[in-house]
Amino acid sequence: xxxxxxxxxxxxxxxxxxxxxxxxxxxxxxxxxxxxxxxxxxxxxxxxxxxxxxxxxxxxxxxxxxxxxxxxxxxxxxxxxxxxxxxxxxxxxxxxxxxxxxxxxxxxxxxxxxxxxxxxxxxxxxxxxxxxxxxxxxxxxxxxxxxxxxxxxxxxxxxxxxxxxxxxxxxxxxxxxxxxxxxxxxxxxxxxxxxxxxxxxxxxxxxxxxxxxxxxxxxxxxxxxxxxxxxxxxxxxxxxxxxxxxxxxxxxxxxxxxxxxxxxxxxxxxxxxxxxxxxxxxxxxxxxxxxxxxxxxxxxxxx
Length: 303
What we know:
The chain is of the alpha/beta class. The chain has helices at 30-45, 106-115, 132-135, 166-174, 176-185, 191-197, 209-223, 226-239, 245-260, 263-273, 297-300; strands at 6-11, 14-19, 51-56, 60-62, 121-125, 128-130, 142-146, 150-152, 188-190, 202-204. It has 2 domains: 6-220, 2-enoyl-CoA Hydratase, Chain A, domain 1, CATH 3.90.226.10; 224-300, Orthogonal Bundle (Lyase 2-enoyl-coa Hydratase, Chain  A, domain 2), CATH 1.10.12.10. The strands form 2 sheets. The protein has a 6-stranded mixed sheet, with helices on both faces. The chain starts with 5 loop residues before the first strand and ends with a helix.
């Protein structure tokens, strides 16, 4: 696939997705949405890719939604470039069909695709990250920031509300009081506050950011079994909304039983005892357990 608003580079076991509208501070569009989803489809399908880094070109990570449509920016019924296509959820009588696919938030489509990724995702936040530029990060597993990064959940200052699933993700990452403060003030804050609040795990000098992100990606790629990482990622994210530890116990038990029979588990133990690097045989594309992807709390409740 040819990308126009992002770049996808694969170097060994690490894929790097770069938001690539530098002249527009990598502002988010319907095209960028579709290309990001396609890029994660590619990385999931490539067994050689063990981790994905997401960053931005130039001095911004993503300056939020492209506001070039002016007052119509968030009114998709009046936009000609709507990510929702030509169909309208507005019925003939003027009421709105809120279950219509055209109602779905474009940023949410991206974060849900990142949420479903089978490869760990590392955000390398190089500069300004506001609106969708910050909420798309929330479904990533680890976020590292440049000291030049700035963050802002600016939605209330634009007359809208947090999107991209952030009402679910954000409080889980930083706690409800801080999530409320950041979203209700809509103010811009720096990398140090993001670190103190738990939004990012480390702050690096600008020139050190991508090397640090790659080092983290390689630590995963060189030391772990890919199917185990894919399963672990899904288990931790999906059980974040479980009603009780019994739901997690049911899932853990199935996963441990399944993995215990695998070639990876045998290789993991034998390579440790033989004091050598492991060579895990299982592939994400072929060896996920038979209960994947139905790993929701509802699936395991009462079973």
